Amino acid sequence: MQRIDLTGKRFGRLVAIKPADHSSSKGNLIWLCRCDCGNYIEVDGQRLRRGETRSCGCLRRDQSREVAQTNEQFQKNVGNSTHFFNEDGVPFASIRRSKRNKSGHVGVSYDKKTNRWVSRLMYDGHYVLLKTFETFDEAVEARENAEDRYLKNKPQSADTSASSPSSDSNH
Ligand SMILES: [Zn+2]
């Protein structure tokens, strides 16, 4: 079993202090960590290295609180509608605030890691569109096409299958 020394290393809000004197059920080293909020927790070293555990749990609490507050504020500004969520279940308020989303176009966002535009659309509980593009315009176009196809829910018989009868169109 590989034992990597994580002493003093930071993982999100956690700083590894020392190995605990026991291992996880999988045989991984457990690390005693101090969270920025002051809590101490023991975390599987592998989860730390993979970035799966980045706080004592306070990070998630903070984030959801922030979203709730923002959303409340947003609704106050905009009106009394309670469903300002896009199809991914993400509150519009948080999209508006996200610095990554320069586009302002719902369903299109910029992925810094790959330097590409991501276009996505969720329909019926799964992604019917999840693609990356080099340009913003392409991403928006893909998104709009997908919206047309999935969200407008109109019968498509006419325009897709060129329904003009061909047999009797001799001239
Ligand atoms: Zn914490």
Question: Would you write up a description of this structure?
Answer:
- By secondary structure, the protein is an alpha+beta fold.
- Among the domains are: 10-55, no CATH class; 80-150, Single alpha-helices involved in coiled-coils or other helix-helix interfaces, CATH 1.20.5.
- Helix content is 30%, strand content 26%.
- The chain has helices at 45-49, 58-78, 92-97, 136-150, 157-160; strands at 10-11, 14-23, 29-35, 40-44, 108-111, 116-123, 126-133.
- The protein has a four-stranded antiparallel sheet with strand order 1-2-3-4. Strands 5-6-7 form a three-stranded antiparallel sheet, covered by helices on one side.
- A hairpin with a 4-residue loop joins strand 3 and strand 4.
- The radius of gyration is 24 Å and the shape is elongated.
- The structure holds zinc ion (ZN).
- Zinc ion is lined by residues 13, 35, 37, 39, 55-56, 58.
User: Runs with pLDDT <50, length 5+?
Assistant: 95-102, 156-167
Architecture (CATH level 2) name of the domain at 80-150 = Up-down Bundle
Query: What string, H for helix and E for strand, traces the elements in order?
Result: EEEEHHHEEEHH
By DSSP (H or I, 4+ residues per run), the number of helices equals: 5
**Distance separating the two termini:** 80 Å
Which key features would you list for this structure?
Single alpha-helices involved in coiled-coils or other helix-helix interfaces; 30% helix; 171 residues; binds zinc ion; elongated; 7 strands; alpha+beta
Question: Which helices and strands occur, and which strands form pairs?
Answer:
Layout: E1 10-11, E2 14-23, E3 29-35, E4 40-44, H1 45-49, H2 58-78, H3 92-97, E5 108-111, E6 116-123, E7 126-133, H4 136-150, H5 157-160
Antiparallel strand pairs: 1-2, 2-3, 3-4, 5-6, 6-7
The protein binds zinc ion.
The site of zinc ion has 7 residues, from loops.
